[in-house]
Design a protein that fits this description.
Elements (H helix, E strand, L loop, with lengths): L1 E5 L4 H12 L10 E6 L13 E5 L7 H5 L6 E4 L5 H6 L1 H25 L5 E7 L22 H18 L4 E7 L1 E2 L12 H11 L4 E3 L6 E5 L1 H13 L10 E3 L3 E4 H12 L1 H4 L2 E3 L3 H8 L8 H5 L8 H17 L1
Parallel strand pairs: 1-2, 1-4, 2-3, 4-5, 5-6, 6-10, 7-9, 8-12
Antiparallel strand pairs: 9-11
Helix pairs in contact: 1-7, 4-5, 6-8, 8-12
């Protein structure tokens, strides 16, 4: 099996690669080749070095997609994107990377299949940003997509393209609408949702964090461990079970910022909670106000996708997978 990972410098991919290093057959077959690419140099676990090849490729550039699929990978993970806050601030860049790059990848696969039979599995990282307010109390799997940000619009268009190219038999596509991944390890990024992780990650490490929204803000979450599991499950899934609606809302935990803080208090005490500094940011508040808060995710759950059920569990996973390993 030849696996191609696009957007491989990101945190979720690093979690996927770590799982692959622990179990080389985690995708359902032994990996003979692994190509990992990003616009910046990605890394792979040392145990995968015999099968791995790293490439620095900007998917938005002309002919980049053709180069990536020239060796006809069997499984493609497409996570290349710029994040929500950056896509909103840099309109042209957002469309070039998040939409045009995806379309170029899809077209490169179609062109390759015209030369000789080729039908890869393609797993696409979508987002809850494809939904826009007003929302019902709990969003079910038939709720329509009406994004209120450029990032959400770019993801929603790509979802439609993925479904149509799959319908036409060009590839076997699955779109995963990811919850906000929390607690993200490492440094803060430009995502508008970054504060959800910051207010836990930094205090757990003894550092201050800024909270730009009210504690009543509610959202949909899953851990990095769960997010990696979503992609692994999508790679192994019998897609005949999905049907024509190829984009799935992933399971998660509906919780408010106050729930996060209470879980932090239970895990690390009042001293950690006092490291959170409340600084309202109208720009972030405006973006977050258009985000969904709760889902049924029934289709995905029935297909075997799983996530956490409490923020205590999410913090425990962060301590086990990231904070403790960083301190070793």
């Amino acid at each position: 099996m030849h696996v191609l990972v696009i957007g491989a410098a990101g945190m979720v991919v690093q979690k996927i690669l770590a799982r692959l290093a622990d179990n080389p057959a985690v995708f359902g077959a032994e990996i003979s080749r692994l190509t990992v690419t990003d616009a910046i140099a990605p890394t792979v676990p040392a145990s995968l070095s015999d099968v791995a090849k790293t490439m620095v490729v900007d998917l938005a550039k002309p002919k980049a997609a053709e180069a990536l699929i020239a060796d006809r990978p069997d499984l493609i993970f497409h996570l290349a994107a710029i994040v929500s806050g950056e896509a909103e601030a840099e309109f042209e860049k957002g469309y070039a990377v998040n939409l045009d790059g995806s379309r170029q990848l899809f077209e490169a696969i179609r062109a390759a299949a015209l030369e000789a039979p080729y039908y890869p599995r393609l797993v696409f990282a979508s987002s809850l940003a494809v939904f826009g307010a007003p929302f019902p109390e709990k969003i079910n799997d038939t709720f329509f997509t009406t994004p209120l940000t450029s990032y959400g619009t770019q993801k929603a268009i790509t979802e439609l393209l993925l479904a149509d190219y799959t319908r036409k038999g060009i590839f076997d596509g699955i779109g995963l609408r990811l919850p906000t991944v929390c607690v993200r390890p490492g440094k803060p990024n430009k995502a508008a949702s970054g504060f959800f992780s910051n207010i836990l990650r930094e205090p757990l490490a003894g550092q201050e964090a800024v909270l730009p929204v009210d504690e009543s803000v509610r959202h949909w979450f899953a851990s990095p461990r769960a997010a990696a599991g979503f992609f692994i499950q999508a790679a192994r899934l019998d897609t005949a079970l999905i049907g024509p609606r190829r984009n799935l809302t992933m399971p998660g935990l509906s919780a408010c910022v106050g729930d996060q803080i209470e879980a932090l208090r239970r895990a690390a005490g009042e001293k950690a909670v006092r490291l959170i500094r409340h600084e309202p940011d109208p720009g972030v508040q405006n973006i977050v106000a258009g985000w969904p808060m709760d889902f049924t995710a029934e289709r995905a759950r029935k297909l075997g996708f799983e996530a956490e059920t409490s923020f205590d569990e999410i913090i425990r996973i962060h301590l086990e997978d990231d904070l403790e390993s960083a301190q070793e």
